[in-house]
Amino acid sequence: MPASSALHTDRYELTMLDAALRDGTADRRCIFEVFGRRLSGGRRFGVVAGTGRLLSLIRDFRFGHEELRFLRDEHIVDAHTIDYLEDYRFTGTISGYREGELYFPGSPVLTVEGTFAEAVILETLVLSVLNHDSAVATAAARMSIAAGDRPLAEMGSRRAGESSAVAAARAAYIAGFTATSNLEAGRTWGIPTMGTAAHAWTLLHDCEEDAFRAQLDALGTDTTLLVDTYDIRHGVETAVRLAGPRLGGVRLDSGDLPTVAAEVRAQLDELGATGTRITVTSDLDEFAIAALAASPVDAYGVGTSVVTGSGVPTAGMVYKLVARQDAAGGWVPVAKASTDKSSRGGRKTAFRVLDAGTATRETIVVSDGFDAVATADEHPDARALQVEMARGGDIDAAHEGTAGVEAARGHHQRVREELPVRGLALSKSDPAIPSVYVDLE
Amino acid sequence: MPASSALHTDRYELTMLDAALRDGTADRRCIFEVFGRRLSGGRRFGVVAGTGRLLSLIRDFRFGHEELRFLRDEHIVDAHTIDYLEDYRFTGTISGYREGELYFPGSPVLTVEGTFAEAVILETLVLSVLNHDSAVATAAARMSIAAGDRPLAEMGSRRAGESSAVAAARAAYIAGFTATSNLEAGRTWGIPTMGTAAHAWTLLHDCEEDAFRAQLDALGTDTTLLVDTYDIRHGVETAVRLAGPRLGGVRLDSGDLPTVAAEVRAQLDELGATGTRITVTSDLDEFAIAALAASPVDAYGVGTSVVTGSGVPTAGMVYKLVARQDAAGGWVPVAKASTDKSSRGGRKTAFRVLDAGTATRETIVVSDGFDAVATADEHPDARALQVEMARGGDIDAAHEGTAGVEAARGHHQRVREELPVRGLALSKSDPAIPSVYVDLE
User: Fold this and answer.
1) Contacting residues of A for B255, CB less than 8 Å apart
2) Which Gene3D superfamilies match (chains A, B) (predicted)?
3) Which of A68, A163, A196, A324 to mutate to test the interface with B (most CBs of B within 10 A)?
4) How far apart are CA A51 and CA A49, in angstroms?
5) CB-based contact A19 B57, cutoff 8 Å
6) Crossing angle of helices B162-174/B401-416, nearest 10°?
7) So what CATH class is B196-291?
8) Measuring CA to CA, which residue among A372, A366, A369, A309 is closest to residue A333?
9) pTM (2 decimals)?
10) For residue A361, what pLDDT is reported?
C-alpha cells in the first residue's frame, strides 16, 4: 500500500481542480459539509467514527513523485495542475463532531473550510473513512447496548477487507466493544486483543483430549476451550476433567445458543465448574445478543455483523459544498435544488438540546457563510457539538493515535447516556430525536 | 499503514502456533481449504476475486522488528514462538480457482498446504481478501450482466473504507466493469479511470452557464456535463447551447431515471444533439440497471451497491483444516462434526462439467490427504478448476499485478459464457448448477 493517501481520490475531483485553476475559481473560499440525509436502516441514532484517523490521513495527503508521475502520464491533469499539486498541503480549517459523538439526519458531522482547490480534492478520502467507520460504530453501539455489562469482542476481520478490518476494530471499540481479535488493531490503536483457539486446533490433534491438554499446558487453566468440534456435552466433560473446576471458560460456536448455553451452564455447575465462563460466537448480531440477555452467557464475540454494519455497510454521508465566496468576497449559501436530493445551503452550527440530561432535539443553526454567532451561551440547555480540529492546516493531535481512540470511547460512553429511552430500542424507527433547522437572521 | 501484512491476523492463530510449537504438532503437514458453505443472498453463482493481490500479501507476510516487539511486549506469544516468527516465510503449496472463476457451494476456491505452523497463521489474511473482493466481484458480475454492452463505471470509493475501495475497483473491473473513478486503482492495478464534475463544480460558479463554459474550455466539447443541479431541462438546454450538438455527454444523478432519461433524450434529439450520450449515476444496483435496459441510457455509474456487495458485503468463505498428517505420516481427513456447520474433510479436486459448452454441475472429488488421482482426462467433458499458484513458497507471479488483473478479467468473461441461462437471472434462487461430491475410493 502506497504511503501517500493522495490518490484515494475520485478522478473528477482533480478534473474540477484542473478546470478551476484555469478559470480562476480555484481560490474561492468554500465551506464543504459532511452530513447524512437520513439514518439508513431505520436506525435511531448514528455514531461518528473515523475522525481521528482521517485527520492523520489528511496530514499525509501529499502528492509525491510517484503520484504526480501517474497523473502526468495518464493525462489526468495538465502541467499547471501538476505544479499546484506538487506543493499541495491542506491549509484550511476543519471542525466537526467529536469522534464517538451521536449524529442524526442533517447533523454537520464535519465542516471543511478552505479554497475550492484545497477542499474539493479531499472529498473521497473524507467520505471513505467516515462512512465506513461510522457504519461500523453505529452497529457496534447497538450491540453494546444489547450486551449490557457483558464483555463484547470484535472478531470479524475475516469478513472485511484487510485494512478496513483494522478500522472496524477501532470503530467497534470506540462504540463500546471491549476487545478485538485483530492484532494490527492492537498494535496501531492500542485496543486490547483476545483469542484462544479455533476448530483447527482440535482437528490437528489425534483427539480432542490431546488438543485441550496441549492448550491448557501452554496457556494455563484460565484459558477458554472451544468445546463444540465434535459433541458439546462430551467436550465440556473432557474440558473440566482435564482443567478441573477452575477452568477459565468454554466457547460455543454453533447450535441454538440459548438452548446450548443453558445446557452447558447446567453441566458446568454439575461438574463444580461454577466459575467457568461461557463465551458465545456464532453469527451474532444485536438481535441475537438481545435474545441471549436472559441466558447464562458471560461474553460475546461478534464477527460478520459488526464489520459489515449489520445490514448498513456504509453510513451514506455526503460531502457537499454549502457556501462559497463570490468574486466580491461575500458569502453565498449554495445547494443542489433537485427534488430528491436537496440539501440546505449555508454554514451550520449544531447543538444538542437537553432536558434534565436527556436529549430532546438536534438544533442546527443555519447562517450564510460567515462564522455563526450562535453560541452555547444562547442555548443554556444545549451542548455545542462542533470542535475545531484543524486551523491553518495544523491538525490538533489530540484527536489522533491511541489517545484519540480512548478519548472517543470515553466521549461516546458519556453522550450515549443522553439518549432518551426510545433511542435504545433496536427495532426500525424514526431518529430518537428530531433535527430542527433554525435560520439565523 | 504498516508495510508488513503479518499482523492482519487474529490473535488465536498465534496462540495456537504457540501451543503447537510446545506440543510438537506444529510440524504436522496440513491442508487448509477455503470454501463457502452457501451462496449468500440467493445468488446463482459467485465470482472468485482477490487471489492475485492475496498472493502478493502472502509474500509480504513477514514479521519484522516492529511486529515482533509488539508480540513480545504484549505477551501474545513466548520467546520460542518469537524465534519461529522471526524466520517465518511461507514455504508450502497454494492451489486454487483462477481469479475471475465462478464458484458454487463447496467449491475449493483455495487450498493451502504446509505445516500447521505456517498455514494456520494465514487464515485471517486469506479470508479478508477473498471474502471482500469476491463479494464485490459477485455483485459486479450481476450488474455487468444487467448492463449488457453499455459501459459500466465503478464510482463507490466514498462508500467503502479507503483501502477496500481500491480493492473493490479492482474486483469490479475483473467482473466486467469498464472503468473506475478511483485514481489509486488506476495507478496500482492499471484500471481505466473516469470522471468529470460534481455538483460542487456548478455550485462554485455564479451560475450554471459559467460552470459549463469553464468545463468545456478545460476539457473540450467531448466532456460530460452534470445537468441536474438546478433544473434538468434548463441544464440540458444550456449545455447544448454552449457546447453545440457535438456535446459528448450529460450526466443525470437524481430523479426517476427511466422518465428523466427519456425526456432528456427527446430534448437532446430535438436540439440536434443526437450523438450526445446520457450517463446515469443515481443509486444504481443490478435491478435498477436492468430496469433501464429499454431506456435511452448510454452508460452507467455505480457507487454504493457495488462496493458493498449489493446486500451481501462479504462472501462468507471459511478457511478450514480438511486433512492433516498423523504422527506416523499418514493423512487423516478431518472436519468439524457439529450439525449446523459441518463440512467435508479430505483434499478436494474440482471440475466444472460441461454439456456443449454449458456448465451442468460442479464435481468435487474428495480424497484423503494424498494428491488426488482424479484428472480432467477422466472427465473429458469437464474443465479442471484448480491451478497451482505457489510451490515451496514461491509464488507464480503471473497472478499478480496489472497482468494478473487483465488475465482474471479475461478469464471471467470466458467462464461466464458457460453459465446456463438460468444462471443469468437476478432474482434469488438456488445455485445455477449443483455441487456434487464424489468420493475417491
Assistant:
1) 338-340
2) Aldolase class I (3.20.20.70), nicotinate phosphoribosyltransferase (3.20.140.10)
3) A163
4) 6
5) no
6) 50
7) alpha beta
8) A369
9) 0.97
10) 96
Q: How many CB atoms lie within 10 A of CB B390?
A: 22
| Chain pair A-B, CB pairs under 8 angstroms | 351
Compute φ and ψ for B389, nearest 5 degrees.
-115, -20
Q: Which residues contact A256 (CB under 8 A, 6 or more apart)?
A: none
Q: What is the DSSP string of A158-182?
A: GGS-HHHHHHHHHHHHHTT--EESB
The residues that bridge with A438 in the sheet, in sequence order, are: A365
- Nearest residue of B to residue A205, measured between CA atoms: B25
Task: Say if the Cβ atoms of A182 and B124 lie within 8 Å.
Answer: yes
**pLDDT score, position B343:** 78
Q: Which of B23, B28, B71 comes nearest A217 by C-beta?
A: B23
Can you point out the beta strands (E) in A64-156? 93-97, 102-103, 110-115, 152-154
Domain B11-136+312-433 classification at class level: alpha beta
Amino acid occupying residue B222:
D
Tell whether the model's pLDDT for residue B3 goes beyond 80.
Answer: no
- Cell output for A88: 499541495
**For B284-321, b where at least 16 C-beta lie within 10 A, e where not — what string?**
bbbebbbebeeebbbbbbbbbbbbbbbbbbbbbbbbbb
Q: Provide the 10 A C-beta neighbour count for residue B206.
A: 12
Q: Which residue ranges make up each domain of chain B? A: 11-136+312-433, 196-291
Residues of chain B with C-beta less than 8 angstroms from the C-beta of A212: none
In angstroms, rounded to a whole number, what is the distance separating the alpha carbons of residues B212 and B208? 6
Which overall architecture, per CATH, does domain A196-290 show? Alpha-Beta Barrel (3.20)
* Start-to-end CA span in chain A (Å): 49
Put simply, the answer to whether A163 touches B158 (Cβ < 8 Å) is: no
Q: In CATH, what number does A11-136+312-344+386-428 get?
A: 3.20.140.10
Task: List Cβ neighbours of B269 (8 Å cut-off, separation of 6 or more).
Answer: none
Q: Which of A4, A12, A317 to mutate: most B Cβ within 10 Å?
A: A12
pLDDT of A237-295, one tens digit each? 999 999 999 999 999 999 999 999 999 999 999 999 999 999 999 899 999 999 999 99
Q: Which residues in chain B touch residue A189, judged by CB atoms under 8 angstroms apart? A: none
Three-class secondary structure of residue B185 per DSSP = helix
Contact A165 B23 (CB under 8 A): no
